[in-house]
Structure formats: structure tokens, C-alpha cells
């Protein structure tokens, strides 16, 4: 089944161009020319990815990104003419997964979309990393379905939290630097290195895996270096 993408942009020429481009790439595409229409479509249909323009006529794109993230963990790729690092970091803090500035090359947009969808599907490169079920202490990690269970109780990870936890499990017993984890999961040029989002995700993961652990610390912070998941 083809991945379904929702594009929210008030520029009809861009909507038409992106719709044709993505359909040629094999994606199913839906469009909305303003924020509230986009929200209504999200309520009625299921999507794999949202392309979101910041300059909308009815609601600021940053606020729409925040509203979507509050109720959904769908990956969001921001499209914007704003080039400052501050604007990019703000969008990441609001829950965006990536940010591309206009005008952009079609080949770069397609590459970013494929990268986001790969990450969300947890498709990694080696045969070992494609193992569908992993075990860590009393946790069972279903990689394909992005489910983590502890003693048959499902832990409600967001997709980003799952991706980070999976990375830590695959590197258990090792000290993983913050920068290395960001580079390997999101790429060397990703803006997460200037954002505290990764630290917030780590905090949430720690709270979830150490709940009812009677004070046992599975995930430790190594001051000034990074993190270590107990062997």
C-alpha cells in the first residue's frame, strides 16, 4: 500500500506541483489550502506524513505544527521560506521532524521524505538491525510494529521515543554521546543538535522504562558525554 501524504500550503501552484511530483514517486497525495481544512482532513483520514507550509492564511504554521503534534505523532516536514536557525529550531521544538527552505530542489525534498518514512518504519541498514523482535531485560521490542512491552504491559512510546530507545538497546552497555546519537538517527546536518528536543525525549523514555522499577536506573546520564543504557 502506498504511503499517503497530506500537503498543507496556501499556494495552489505549489500544491499542484507537489501533488504531481509525489504521485510520480508512487505516493498517494491529499491537499489542503489552509490550516483548518488540514486539521479536518487529519480527523477524517489516515496519513503517513504531513508537508506543512508555515505561511498559512488562517493560522500560523508554527501553531498548527504544535496543535498537530499535541494530538498525533505523524511525521511533519516543514516547508518554509524562513531561513534563520531560530525559526528552524522553533519548529523542531514544536514537534516538526524536519525542515526544508523554499525554494528547494525536488530531489532534496524527495530524499528528505524517504528518509523520514524510513526512520518511522525503523528500516535500518544491516541484517542484524532488521531483526523484528529484540529482548532487553524484561522488555520485548517489536521492531516492525514499533511496540515495546514490559512484562506483557505495552509502554506507550511515541515514534521518536521508540527510535531512540531502539538505538540505545542496540548499543546497550556503551556510552553514546548526544551528538553521535543525533548524527546517526537524523543526519549530521540535522537541527536537533541545536535543540533540546533530544534531551526531552530521553527524559520521557527514562520515565517510562523506569516506572515501577523500584528506583532502578536503566538509562544513565554520563555528565558532559551522553547516555548509557545498562547492559
From TrEMBL:
Residues 131-231 form the OmpR/PhoB-type domain. GO terms for molecular function: phosphorelay response regulator activity; transcription cis-regulatory region binding. GO terms for biological process: regulation of DNA-templated transcription. It comes from the Bacteria. Residues 4-117 form the Response regulatory domain. GO terms for cellular component: cytosol; protein-DNA complex. The modification 4-aspartylphosphate is found at residue 53. CDD domains: REC_OmpR, trans_reg_C. InterPro entries: CheY-like_superfamily, OmpR/PhoB-type_DNA-bd, Sig_transdc_resp-reg_C-effctor, Sig_transdc_resp-reg_receiver, WalR-like, WH-like_DNA-bd_sf. The keyword DNA-binding applies. Keywords: DNA-binding, Phosphoprotein, Transcription, Transcription regulation, Two-component regulatory system. Residues 131-231 bind DNA. Coiled coil: none annotated. This is Two component transcriptional regulator, winged helix family. It comes from Calditerrivibrio nitroreducens (strain DSM 19672 / NBRC 101217 / Yu37-1).
Amino acid at each position: 500500500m502506498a504511503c499517503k501524504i497530506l500537503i498543507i500550503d496556501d499556494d495552489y501552484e505549489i500544491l499542484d506541483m507537489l501533488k504531481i511530483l509525489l504521485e510520480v514517486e508512487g505516493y498517494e497525495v491529499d491537499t489542503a489550502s489552509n490550516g483548518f481544512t488540514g486539521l479536518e482532513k487529519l480527523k477524517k483520514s489516515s496519513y503517513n506524513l504531513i508537508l506543512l507550509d508555515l505561511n498559512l492564511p488562517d493560522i500560523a504554521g508554527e501553531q498548527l505544527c504544535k496543535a498537530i503534534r499535541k494530538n498525533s505523532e505523524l511525521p511533519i516536514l516543514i516547508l518554509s521560506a524562513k531561513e534563520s536557525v531560530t525559526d528552524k529550531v522553533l519548529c523542531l521544538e514544536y514537534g516538526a521532524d524536519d525542515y526544508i527552505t523554499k525554494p528547494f530542489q525536488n530531489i532534496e525534498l524527495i530524499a528528505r521524505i524517504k528518509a523520514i518514512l524510513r526512520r518511522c518504519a525503523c528500516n535500518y541498514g544491516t541484517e542484524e538491525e532488521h531483526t523484528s523482535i529484540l529482548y532487553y531485560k524484561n522488555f520485548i521490542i517489536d521492531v516492525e510494529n514499533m511496540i515495546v512491552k514490559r512484562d506483557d504491559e505495552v509502554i506507550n512510546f511515541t515514534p521518536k521515543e521508540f527510535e531512540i530507545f531502539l538505538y540505545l538497546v542496540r548499543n546497550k552497555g556503551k556510552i553514546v554521546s548526544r551528538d553521535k546519537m543525533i548524527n546517526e538517527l537524523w543526519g549530521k546536518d540535522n537541527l536537533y543538535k541545536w535543540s533540546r528536543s533530544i534531551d526531552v525525549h530521553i527524559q520521557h523514555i527514562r520515565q517510562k522504562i523506569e516506572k515501577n522499577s523500584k528506583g532502578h536506573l536503566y538509562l544513565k546520564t554520563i555528565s558532559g558525554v551522553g547516555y548509557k543504557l545498562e547492559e
